[in-house]
Write a structure and sequence with these properties.
This protein is mainly beta. 0% of the residues lie in helices and 50% in strands. A hairpin with an 8-residue loop joins strand 10 (86-88) and strand 11.
Length: 122
């Protein structure tokens, strides 16, 4: 099992090996990341990462290749000071969706993930 962490450099990935955890590899994401979680958004069998940036009002997705590397962050503006998120298939279309509580708007934004495309539904 590997570890993903939040840092001022973005997202740090600590790969586990027989000798323990190595030095982190950093992947750029927005600054002021509030939370991070992993799931397989694009259904390719490799874990992907989602991060919340409350200051920028964005959710960023980093697609993983299953070997500890991730694509450049794809950021989606949701506004309203997002501070956390959860994953599920909220609309029963067979794809993982993201629900994001928006603090300053007292509502929830959902990101509907269709293949490799994300559609914001407010």
């Amino acid at each position: 099992m590997d570890i993903a962490s939040i840092s001022i450099n973005g997202v740090g990935i600590f790969l586990n090996s027989a000798s323990g955890f190595g030095s982190p590899t950093y992947f750029a994401a927005e600054t002021a990341i509030e939370s991070i979680a992993a799931t397989d958004f694009n259904r390719d069998g490799a874990p992907d990462l989602a991060v919340v940036n409350r200051v920028a009002g964005q959710i960023s997705i980093l697609l993983g290749n299953g070997q500890g590397n991730f694509s450049a962050a794809q950021s989606y503006a949701v506004g309203g000071n997002p501070f956390n998120f959860t994953f599920a298939d909220f609309n029963a279309d067979g794809n993982i969706d993201i629900a994001v509580p928006l603090y300053t708007r007292a509502t929830v934004a959902t990101l509907d993930i269709i293949g490799n495309k994300i559609v914001l539904q407010d």
